[in-house]
Amino acid sequence: MMHSRHTKILSKIFLTTALLAVTVAVRADEALQTFLEQTLTTARDKNDLPAVAALIQIDGKTAAIAADGFRAHSHMEPVTIDDRWHIGSNTKALTATMIARLVEQGIMRFEDTLADSFPAFAKNMDPAYRNITITQLLSHTAGLPPLTDDNELPQFEDLIESVPSIRAQRIAVARSYLAMPPTSATGSFKYSNLGYIIAGAIAEARTGKTWEDLIKEQIFTPLGIKNAGFAAPGSSGKLDQPRGHKKTWWGKLVPLDPADIQSDNPQALGPAGTINISLKDWILFAEDQLNGVHGRGKLLKSETYRKLHSPVNGHYALGWGALYDPELLLLTHTGSNGYWLTDARIMPKHNIIFLIAMNSAGDTAEKSMKDIRKLLMERLKPFE
């Protein structure tokens, strides 16, 4: 009887402690939620942004999520936490991960060279490119032109204009640019969208599938990502999703209809940056990257995540900026197609992730992003 009574007392103590812990956690989440909402509202009002959204995950749970503003400037349709955002170059981490899955499946190798990958025109390549590897394409160390400036786009668009299919366009890009001399020293870091387009073209050649279908098959489906797509989100003539915004020369923000050819970069650029996705679905990918650091990712083996997250030159790994000191402290990337701006931060040591998205870009949006990011880092204190 004594043993049974003591058991009941202990159970009550444990229950009380558990309830107290839950109450404290709820209060902490409520405080963080309020902080996030106020931070986004302040940033948007201060800088006249159309909209901004963010999600904070701590220990595998959404600690706060908020969206503030409107889907289009001068319209009253509010953004929601379920809306999609064009994530620009944050696409690169998904492309690198998709290729890593093909490597694990024996379809590709990180050590494959461009000559191996494109035997049909290997002889026409500049000799400096023939031994460039998949790893170098994904780490921006291949010596390729950046294709990050508007001045570079006309040549790119002229090249693909008369090519009918998207796969053929990406092959045409590889064939043409690899015949030219490198624009930087191979092996040195020089950010290049072309590297990712060419890596995507190799994946397409090896599988017979488009990069878009490979992303769906290798990333979206296994992670349960459903609220995502490619190019500018939403339907033409409707405000069913946020619109990207172009700034006129006199400073006015103009929302772009997703059917407008100017609303995104050419589709051929896809592997470097055309995914749109909701924050709730994007976090599924980011969480898997964090879990991969701890040996429990769904998509890849632990050693393959380490390959993705290990810097090749400076602080750039494969699709991620990475900071070690000496363990992996931070995975990060920003993305923009000129009309949207996004930022991802993964902090494995403290199991913290935050994602930020805006449907405008340019200097004002970038300053706002830095301000929000600084406030979140100060509030979360992940490196203390």
Layout of SSEs?
Blueprint: H1 2-47, E1 51-58, E2 61-69, E3 84-86, H2 91-104, H3 114-117, H4 134-138, H5 153-160, H6 166-178, H7 193-207, H8 211-223, E4 228-230, E5 245-247, E6 253-255, H9 270-273, E7 275-278, H10 279-293, H11 302-309, E8 321-324, E9 328-335, E10 341-347, E11 352-358, H12 362-380
Antiparallel strand pairs: 1-2, 1-11, 3-7, 4-7, 5-6, 8-9, 9-10, 10-11
Task: Walk me through the structure.
The protein has 384 residues and is an alpha+beta fold. It has 2 domains: 38-94 and 211-380, DD-peptidase/beta-lactamase superfamily (Beta-lactamase); 107-207. Helices cover 43% and strands 15% of the residues. The chain is built from 12 helices and 11 strands. The chain has helices at 2-47, 91-104, 114-117, 134-138, 153-160, 166-178, 193-207, 211-223, 270-273, 279-293, 302-309, 362-380; strands at residues 51-58, 61-69, 84-86, 228-230, 245-247, 253-255, 275-278, 321-324, 328-335, 341-347, 352-358. Strands 2-1-11-10-9-8 form a 6-stranded antiparallel beta sheet, sandwiched between helices. Strands 3-7-4 form a 3-stranded antiparallel beta sheet. Strands 5-6 form a two-stranded antiparallel sheet. Strand 10 and strand 11 (352-358) form a beta hairpin. Helix 1 packs antiparallel against helix 12, helix 2 crosses helix 8 (211-223) and helix 6 packs across helix 7. The longest helix has 46 residues, at 2-47.
